[in-house]
Amino acid sequence: MTEQAIGLGVQNFNVAVYVAKAPSMPYFETLESVEPVINEQINTINQHCGNGWRKVFNVYAKVLFALPSEHYSFAKQADSWQAYRDKFLLQNNSKTALLFSAPIINGTNKNQLHIIAGRTHAKNLLQQGKLNAQFNWLDDEFAIDTTNNIIVCPYFDYRQLSNIKIARLSELVAKLKTSN
């Protein structure tokens, strides 16, 4: 049986963010694939699952908006990260994914960027044998695997992944892109 990515967004992503747990809603208990966000699904998750998920979606949109524009066009699609979140994030044709499963690294697709939200999550994936990566830990919060286009960063929360750290993440992405 082949591994199956599970989460929100699209299978053919350019950027995927990996989090340890899905929102605690019945819909996600049976989710077995990657499905695009429809209608007001992000708002529904925010209402049912609280401020933590609101932060995840907001920070995700901010990260996409901060990525180097010579490599990614997310910031060109909307006037603000808020507008991007509301109109494009994780929707069909967005080239984005928020995954609750382990990364499936396809060595042939160098265009895919994998961002693991949280050092603990990354270390758990490694310990469980669900991730084959060679991380260069830059400090306590950031790690990079240039071979597989994987970056570990703080969890998607305003305090943990502040605007300054989002800028650092963007710099690491630029470094990855120029090393490929």
From TrEMBL:
<dbReference type="Pfam" id="PF22098">
    <property type="entry name" value="DUF6942"/>
</dbReference>
<protein>
    <recommendedName>
        <fullName>Orphan protein</fullName>
    </recommendedName>
</protein>
<dbReference type="InterPro" id="IPR054222">
    <property type="entry name" value="DUF6942"/>
</dbReference>
